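Students often ask why inverse folding is considered easier than folding. One informal answer: many sequences map to the same fold, so there is more than one right answer. In these notes we will look at a single instance of the problem. The structure comes first.
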């Protein structure tokens, strides 16, 4: 159960989608050794941010500056002169996008929390008119439906983003 909730939380944060973005960029830019060359790192970061901005809604997210990437490249040249692997690239992008992904999750929750009460009320009214379950639905208080709608709306928003 804990693993399921952990995967669900990662999905809400957009990590699997970010992984796809990083894999796409890495596959386009990798060299013969299967590594991302350090000379291509800044361009690859810009490509990843371009895809990130296209797929994650909201305001435009700024990539790290050329100076930040240059300092990372300088540091990595001493450690790994051939380039970085897929996991290191994903780790860098994950770290640089953490603030933007946090805002993305907050906006998702805010939208779901605002819409859930109205949807719960509409569902209850509609369900009361159904002859076979109307009496049961009348006995269930409306606030019971609200958390279900919050979770449902968050997951629906998540699936619509990952469907691209």
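Output (designed amino acids):
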């Amino acid at each position: 159960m804990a693993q399921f909730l952990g995967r669900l939380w990662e999905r809400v944060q957009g990590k699997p989608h970010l992984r796809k973005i990083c894999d796409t960029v890495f596959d386009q830019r990798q060299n013969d050794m299967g590594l991302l060359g350090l000379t291509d790192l800044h361009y690859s970061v810009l490509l990843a941010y371009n895809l990130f901005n296209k797929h994650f809604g909201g305001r435009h997210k700024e990539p790290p500056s050329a100076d930040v990437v240059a300092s990372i490249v300088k540091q990595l040249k001493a450690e790994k002169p051939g380039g970085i692997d897929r996991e290191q690239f994903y780790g860098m992008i994950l770290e640089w996008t953490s603030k933007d992904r946090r805002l993305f999750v907050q906006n998702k929750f805010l939208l779901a929390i605002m819409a859930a009460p109205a949807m719960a009320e509409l569902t209850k009214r509609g369900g009361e008119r159904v002859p076979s379950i109307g009496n049961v639905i009348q006995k269930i208080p409306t606030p019971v439906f609200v958390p279900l709608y919050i979770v449902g709306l968050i997951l629906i928003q998540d699936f619509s983003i990952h469907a691209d």
